[in-house]
Amino acid sequence: MLTKRIIPCLDIKNGRTVKGINFENIRDAGDPIELAQRYVVEGADELVFLDITATNEGRKTFASLVLEIAKHINIPFTVGGGISSIADASVLLEAGADKVSINSSAVRRPELVDELAKEFGSQFVVVAIDTKLLEGEDGTIAQRVVTHGGTRPTEKFTVPWAREINERGAGEILLTSMNTDGAKSGFAINVTRAVNEAVNIPVIASGGAGSMEHFTDVFRQTGCDAALAASIFHFGEIPIPHLKAYLRGQQIPVRL
Predict the structure, then answer these.
(1) Is residue 92 part of a domain?
(2) Suppose 196 and one of 9, 14, 203, 209 were both cysteines; which one would form an S-S bond, judging by CB atoms 3.0 to 4.6 Å apart?
(3) 11 has catalytic annotation
(4) What pTM did the predictor assign?
């Protein structure tokens, strides 16, 4: 049986790790390289670095930071933020990233998923989906895709969009629930299960982790391949070794 992955996420703003609630009320969480090194020692399976203002501010992810990260850690890491072309992704790959994550640029131009998969291989391409329960013009409430750090609703429904990017060659989906992000009330089980059942690529659940039980719930109830969290790791609320020992005790397969 494949082991379930535990992935700390480091949201980067102006070279620092930050964290907020529902993508707002941002506060400093430390130096990204120091945090990354700590997570390697603690047994994180992978890391994700997201430049959370790159798309909004029209910037590219800082390749120099990626280069420094690659020098200091020896586990796979994904980088996202402001990536909109093969050239953008190539710079990050050359700097040492194992995967790139695209979000707003894929919604704007879905063919980018095909292009990246063809150029680098599907295993290099992570498509991040920020999802939120929104009311449509007909009054129905459904999970829809939002972009630009959760500030712009789109007409795309989450599950069909997940199917499309799977078919276009994405290697993995990073699914973040805007409704639960930072709230520590638990992962969004229903939409995570629906996306996982709709695709045949790994799904990373993100948004809402607040206790070790929440990880057990998302793995058991959705079938997702990995769970991502930020503040509970950054501020030492749940040490990764404790979490993994707990999950192993709950018969969830993890790498210790």
Answers:
(1) yes
(2) 203
(3) yes
(4) 0.92
**Digit-coded pLDDT (tens) for 152-172:** 899 999 999 999 999 999 999
130 is catalytic: yes
Q: Is residue 255 part of a domain?
A: no
Q: Is residue 105 part of a domain?
A: yes
**Structural domain total, the chain:** 1
Would you report the helix, strand and coil content of the chain in percent, each value rounded to 5? Answer: 40, 30, 30
| Domain-embedded: residue 162 | yes
Catalytic hit among 45, 51, 88, 130: 130
Distance, CA of 171 to chain centre: 13
pLDDT of residue 14: 75
Tokens coding 152? 């712009």
Q: Tokens 């979000």 sit at which residue?
A: 103
DSSP state of 136: -
The residue among 165, 45, 144, 153 whose CA lies nearest residue 102 is 165
Catalytic residue among 11, 51, 181, 225: 11
Query: Range of 167's domain?
Result: 5-249
Tokens of 3: 């082991």
